[in-house]
Amino acid sequence: MAIKVRIPAPLQKLTQDKAQVEANGSTISELIEDLNRQFPGFKDRLCDTQGKLRRFINIYLNQEDIRFLKMEVTKTKDGDEISIVPAIAGG
Fold it and tell me: Which domains occur in the chain, in start order?
């Protein structure tokens, strides 16, 4: 069993227009690496050149913001659900 990942509309062009995909990894970082392996260029949209999540990307693990957990080293397990949510600015 894998981890379900909800993909926001702006990134769905990288996932062949899929709104949800499956990936594996024991941490958020490993999950992002697996997504990048499956969908080349995916990591570049989420992470900076040092591999840290970009400020405008929010990731939720089972509806909990990973910023309040351990960011990229947050542990994941089979059956978890990840939501990637780009921040929206306006004014």
Answer: 3-86 (3.10.20.30)
